[in-house]
Amino acid sequence: MVHLGRIGRWAFFAFIALYLAIPMVAVILYSFSARWTSNILPDAYTLAHWGEAFRDERMRNAFWRTTWMAIAVLLLDIVLVVPAVYWQRVRNPKIRVFAELSAAIPFVLPFIVIAFGILKFMGRSAPQMLGTPLIILLSHAAIAFPFLYWAVDGAMAAANVGRLNEAAVVCGASPLQTLRHVILPNISSGLAAGGMLVFATSFGEFALVQILAGSRFENISLYSLDLLLNTTSQVELMAVLTILMFVVLFGISVAVVYLNRGREGGFLPGSRALVTEKNE
Amino acid sequence: MARDGATVLPGGAAEASAAPRRGFLASVGEGLAAWLPALPLMALAIVFLVVPTVELVVRSFYTPDLGWNLSFWQDTLTSNGSRKAILTSVRLGLVCATIALVIGTPLAWAISRMVTAKRSTWLALLNVGANFGGIGLAFGYMAALGTYGMVTLAVQKVISGFMPPEIGSFTSLVMAYSYTNVPLFVLLTLPAMGIIRTEWMEAAETCAATRWQFWRYIGAPVLAPFALAGWLLIFTWSIGLYGLAYALGRTASTTGELRLITLQIGLTLNTGAGKEERAYVLAVVLLLLATVALVAYRLMLRRALRWFT
Question: What is the ipTM of this complex?
Answer without folding.
Answer: 0.88
